[in-house]
Amino acid sequence: MAPCTFHHAIKWLLYGCIASHVLKKAQGIAPRWSWETVMPFFHSCNETGLWSDEALDVISKFPMVTVEKGQGFLSNSSGYAEDHIIAQLAAVKARDPTIQTVFYMNSVLNWFFYALAKEYENIPAYWLYDSTTHKPVRSKGDRAFQPQPSEGMLVFNHAIPAVRSLWKDVCYNAVNSGVVDGCYADASDQDSHRTENYLNASDRAAFEAGKVITSADITRKFGGEPGKPYPQNATGVLIGKRPDQKGINAIQIEDFEANEEHIQILLEAVAHGYLVQVHVSLKVEYSVTCGCSCITNELAAFLIGMGKYSYFGYGTWISPNLADVKSRWCPDFFTRPLGKPLGSSTRYANGIWRRSFSLGTNVTFDANTNKGTIDWAGPPAEVATTARY
Fold first, then answer.
1. Strand-strand pairing, 100-106 and 182-186
2. How far apart are CA 245 and CA 366, in angstroms?
3. For labelling, which of 15, 131, 170, 188 has a CA lying 20 to 30 Å from the CA of 53?
4. Strand, coil or helix: 135
5. Residue 79 to residues 9, 76, 167, 277: CA-CA distances in angstroms?
6. Residue 8 binned pLDDT confidence (cut-offs 50, 70, 90)
7. What count of other Cβ atoms lies within 10 Å of the Cβ of residue 386?
8. Cα separation, 74 vs 381, whole angstroms
9. DSSP label of 156
10. In 3D, which of 322, 327, 323 has the Cα closest to residue 51?
11. pTM for the predicted model, two decimal places
């Protein structure tokens, strides 16, 4: 995707610079929420630079926006991932300050294009070491983000308090910019990136306990309590990975599929009162190649299990072009009347799930075929436009 003009890039960078000085003590905000329609979220990045004004016209329709680690990675502009992500989120906030903006971080991998990585690489005492060989643990990340170091990346040793402080400060500094409302803690769940293969029982327990402390500290910093419902008056968000994960009150189900297993995961998170981002799995290939018209089954499964602060989204972690951005906004789904659930979903003995909503929308999901139907209460408020690649 072509970046926006140099003039716009300078404008957004200046916005972030001013915010970091004037709003040094800024706190984040909770995301907008309504039962009137399905609430979507956007999660991606533009490797070639800042999104264009036309792309922002679409992105600013979402009440919650996460910018991924690869933002600006292939651009010619200077700076680290922290700079590029904050500059992009500044552009989003400039469009609509009520959008909850989320800064991507990885709890395990020391992604090499962050400024944090340069600092961490110079402190060997902070690294995670193999319990047997005593060599530094290194791991590779998502292959969509290239190039990566052939030997892999260092791992943050959360068993060490100073490492936890270092990691948390990156999140807090992003929020203190005044244009970021929280952080996405990728790999914050237990044994992510197979770290358990390198650690004995005691080292593993200390490492995993440290990850929980890191998450819990940030969750409390943003006005929440780990394991408790996401509060309406939250001053930010720390997004974890699983409903059984400790230290969090918000998660992303990043590989959601239209089946009973994933409905149950969603129901578990909703039962906790967590904020939940439901992201259609990239394994569901047609969600990327076909888009809105091909994800009715996934949306039906979402509606069966969703609760307050449940958001729906799909798409690759790297957005290749403007057409891709446009394809992620589904007016036929996101602007139709929904309403509060008239109760929890009901599963019948024949494997059929049903749920009804107060504005007249009714949903059915067949766990035998993994097919869903949505009988909407009314037409979309916005007419869909066709995005061409």
1. parallel
2. 29
3. 170
4. coil
5. 13, 10, 19, 29
6. very low
7. 9
8. 38
9. B
10. 322
11. 0.91
